[in-house]
Design brief:
Layout (H helix, E strand, L loop, with lengths): L8 H7 L9 H12 L4 E7 L4 E6 L20 H7 L7 H6 L2 E14 H5 L6 E16 L6 H8 L6 E4 L2 E2 L12 E3 L2 E4 L12 E5 L2 E4 L10 E5 L17 H26 L2 H14 L17 E4 L12 E3 L6 H6 L4 E3 L8 H10 L2 E3 L14 E3 L6 E5 L3 E4 L8 E4 L2 E5 L4 E4 L4 E3 L2 E4 L9 H4 L11 H19 L3 H12 L10 E7 L7 E8 L8 E4 L1
Parallel strand pairs: 1-5, 9-11, 14-15, 14-16, 19-23
Antiparallel strand pairs: 1-2, 2-4, 3-4, 5-6, 7-8, 8-11, 9-10, 12-13, 12-15, 17-20, 18-19, 20-21, 22-23, 24-25, 25-26
Helix pairs in contact: 7-8
């Protein structure tokens, strides 16, 4: 027994109507045929009320009308077939979308009843007296809602002039309307080649129609690629996606990177180093061309932050600011400027941030340069250095019983930060180190709790009320511990207790005695009561 491939013609004809994704594929197929026929101008007219679509082109026209009804047979010449690789199913969409198709070209005309044609009836081709230049196709019973809005986007990259109901379409991404450069994969337009404002967003066209696009991108910030149809194929029959799209996407990205390399190399020869770096650094970093900076003395300002405020655990990093002007190579190599690498602030490296702040170091994004760049030799990786924290003239240490944080608080005259290479004395701001807050004489606020925690819970929710409470609690604690007025200190403590809430205490007078020592206790005695001469009626202590 032997078997072989067979095709059920009736089933193939019946099911072909479901091959196309949407009804607008009809228009793209007619445009594609006109382009292949060498048309320089295509006119589309659509009457939504009558549901009549007419497409006229000035191409080479049609000699053999049988090609219209021959499925999966390309009627194009050898050169066009080799370059375009047509599928031979384009016109079949007309048979399924319309009830009647009238085609005229040169000295011939055919009026096709589509139902009869799909039933394989013979259709008469008629001669016409007046020759028609190009081809005119008129389709009846075609429902194309919103074609007026869709046609512009459909023809965004189409290479041939198209008029819709008498109005020329913009075709803003046609290759002839763009500044392009040649590439092994086709023709490429890069956005940002003049101002450095590059984009990863890319529109990819094959034979004039979009086959790859980002989910969203502004049209004035997009790369455009027109692929060589001899190297790339779109899927049958819609031609709206590339075959092996994942593989082809990588190839396209590689070619875009090569195009940026070429653009940057030219710009480097034409601009001063300062201007080149200022304009194109972002593009160099974005497209992996950082080695172009290796032989330049100029550094990008984007890589350097100065510490301008108190460092805290905050995603906004408002305590740093990009420098206005990057340090010079001479300043870096001479040590006049120290470049340090620091991870984002947390309670483990807050002391390192405070050291960098005190010494005026610049925080350097060293990853923003290639590994062979000369600046790499002058970076201090401060997170890898041990920084010791020492309280000078320690006064006392207590526990802050906050809502969110419970650090040990050490009041002192100043804080010494010591690394293997540097020493800095901090007098104006608190320093968090591990679970300890060092509070020097100049610190009066509760802000150091923000070095101890980000106040973000396990659900990534910022606990603003807990931050406010703990910040106020630390500020109050500092104020009380440094107070020189005992009555004022006791009064501030009693205010927090809100003793007026307790009726039993109303009208009472007490004597409070606080002991001395490392952990002093206290005693409380009732000394007076309204309407009574009794004194010392009660006593408590701890």
């Amino acid at each position: 027994m032997q078997i072989q491939v067979r095709i059920n013609e009736e089933g193939a004809l019946r099911n072909q109507r479901y091959a196309f994704t949407d009804r607008f594929t009809l228009v793209s197929e007619l445009l594609q045929n006109a382009r292949r026929a060498g048309a320089m101008r295509i006119e589309i007219h659509y009457d939504a009320t009558a549901q009549v679509l007419r497409v006229e082109d000035d191409g080479q026209g049609l000699d053999d009308f049988q090609k219209l009804l021959s499925f999966h047979e390309s009627g194009w010449d050898v050169a066009t077939s080799a370059k375009e690789r047509p599928f031979g199913v384009g016109f079949s969409k007309c048979l399924y979308a319309a009830t009647r198709c009238i085609v005229a070209s040169k000295h011939q005309r055919v009026d096709i009843d589509t139902a009869a044609a799909l039933a394989k009836a013979s259709i008469e081709v008629e001669p016409i007296t007046e020759a028609f230049t190009g081809t005119r196709i008129e389709l009846h019973g075609v429902d194309l809602p919103d074609l007026g809005n869709r046609i512009e986007s459909l023809c965004l990259g189409f290479p041939v002039e198209v008029l819709f109901n008498g109005k020329p379409l913009l075709r803003r991404f046609a290759a002839a309307h763009l500044a392009t450069m040649a590439s092994p994969m086709g023709t490429v337009h890069l956005t940002g080649t003049r101002d450095g404002k590059f984009s990863y967003n890319t529109l990819v066209f094959l034979q004039g129609f979009c086959v790859m696009k980002p989910n969203y991108c502004p049209f004035d910030e997009v790369n455009v690629v027109h692929l060589d149809s001899r190297q790339f194929m779109a899927r049958l029959p819609d031609r709206d996606k590339l075959i092996d799209e994942d593989v082809q996407r990588k190839r396209i990205d590689t070619e875009l990177k090569a195009c940026w390399r070429q653009t940057l190399e030219v710009a480097k020869t034409q601009l001063s180093p300062e201007r080149f770096v200022e304009t194109y650094y972002a593009a160099m970093r974005g497209w992996g061309q950082l080695d172009l900076l290796n032989d330049l003395d100029v550094l990008p300002a984007e890589l350097f932050d100065e510490i301008v405020d108190y460092p805290i655990q905050d995603d906004d990093r408002s305590y740093v600011r990009q420098v206005a002007v990057a340090p010079t190579r001479q300043a870096v190599e001479s040590g006049a400027v120290t470049l340090v690498s620091l991870d984002w602030l947390d309670d483990d490296n807050a002391a390192r941030w405070m050291l960098a702040r005190a010494k005026g170091y610049l925080v350097f994004d060293w990853i923003g340069l290639g590994s062979e760049h000369w600046a790499w030799r002058h970076v201090r990786f401060l997170d890898q250095e041990t920084v010791q924290v020492e309280a000078v003239s320690e006064q006392l240490r207590v526990q802050l019983e906050g809502r969110w944080v419970w650090p040990t608080v050490i009041l002192c005259g100043s804080v010494i930060l010591r690394s293997a290479k540097d020493v800095a004395e901090i007098t104006d701001a608190g320093v968090c180190h591990g679970d300890v807050l060092y509070i020097p004489a100049g610190e009066t606020s509760g802000e150091p709790v923000r070095q101890a925690s980000s106040f973000i819970d396990e659900n990534d929710q910022f606990q603003a009320s807990d931050l406010d409470a703990d910040r106020d609690a630390l500020a109050d604690l500092i104020r009380r511990l440094r107070s020189v007025d005992p009555v004022q200190t006791l009064d501030s403590l009693l205010q927090e207790l809100r003793l007026g809430r307790y009726p039993l205490l109303h009208g009472k007078a007490f004597q409070v005695t606080v002991g001395v020592g490392a952990a002093p206790g206290h005693s409380v005695a009732l000394v007076a009561e309204e309407g009574s001469a009794n004194a010392g009626a009660g006593h408590a202590g701890s």
